[in-house]
Specification:
Layout lengths: L1 E2 L5 E8 L2 E4 L1 E3 L2 E3 L11 E11 L4 E10 L6 E4 L3 H5 L6 H12 L19 E4 L4 E4 L2 E5 L3 E4 L5 E3 L4 E7 L7 E8 L2 E8 L1 E2 L6 E2 L4 E4 L10 E8 L2 E3 L11
Parallel strand pairs: 8-10
Antiparallel strand pairs: 1-5, 2-3, 2-6, 4-5, 6-7, 9-12, 10-11, 12-20, 13-19, 14-15, 14-18, 15-16, 16-20, 17-19, 20-21
Length: 245
């Protein structure tokens, strides 16, 4: 979403889904990635956009939003008792906190331009948003996409950004990398067998981050790849066909 004001703004924001999101300046326009939650019901909605100019004048408008219906599907997994127990193990608290903190980053620079690229060559084994049952019980909605590939296959950055997390000690997610792309957008890469970059490092689109593995809780070698906007998971495939700019 972009806002092209007639004069310089002091601030601009959008109220949507019970939260307020700030527009960030990008040249002469102000930009905002507005996330739609997996749990949002189909239908017509309105978001409120409001802004304040440097000279004190204010403006406001309503933004219509149409959420289309979509079927996400169901997946059943069988895990050993030891693997299943890792979901609630005390040692996973640290990794969840670190991932959550990285996903909260909202940096004013926007490093990506145009569409993201697929981070690994392979077969999509689990799509975004699927209801995942583990040992017969509904566990969670799948927040990314799983790409099956041989162990050791290179994993590359889907877009340019800064590495906000790189940790090889997680017991649930396995070896994990998170990249901050700016403006509240991040990508997550988990179950790696090897990490090839470090936290704080600038990376370019297509740069190697690590290699496919099956670390953490995984039934076989694959990359779990996820895109987040303001800490909300969004469909990675949508980001593969963005307009240029």
């Amino acid at each position: 979403m972009t806002l092209s004001p007639e004069a310089e703004l002091l601030r601009a924001a959008c109220s949507w889904g019970g939260k307020s999101y700030q527009f960030l300046a990008s040249g002469n326009v102000y930009e905002l990635v507005l996330p739609v939650s997996l749990t949002t019901q189909p239908g017509a909605y309105r978001a409120s956009v409001y802004w304040k100019y440097i000279d004190g004048r204010m403006g406001k408008t309503a933004l219509p939003i149409q959420v289309e219906p979509r079927e996400f599907g169901v997946q059943h997994l069988q895990l050993s008792r030891r693997q299943e127990a890792r979901y609630s193990a005390p040692e996973t608290k640290r990794e969840k906190q670190l991932i959550g903190a990285a996903l909260e980053l909202v940096t004013s620079d926007r490093w990506w331009r145009g569409s993201f690229v697929m981070p690994v060559e392979g077969r999509v084994s689990t799509g975004f948003g699927m209801q995942r049952y583990i040992n017969g019980r509904l566990a969670y909605r799948h927040r990314g996409m799983d790409i099956a590939a041989p162990e050791g296959t290179p994993v590359r950055a889907a877009a340019a950004g800064v590495v906000s997390l790189a940790d090889d000690s997680f017991v649930l997610h396995g070896q994990t990398v998170l990249i901050d792309h700016g403006h509240g957008v991040s990508t997550l890469y988990i179950h790696l067998s090897e990490i090839a970059i470090r936290e704080g490092q600038r990376v370019t689109e297509g740069q190697m981050l690590g290699r496919v593995g099956a670390t953490g809780v995984a039934t076989g070698p694959h990359l779990h790849f996820a895109v987040y906007a303001y800490h909300r998971p969004v469909d990675p495939l949508f980001w593969m066909s963005l307009p240029e700019g």
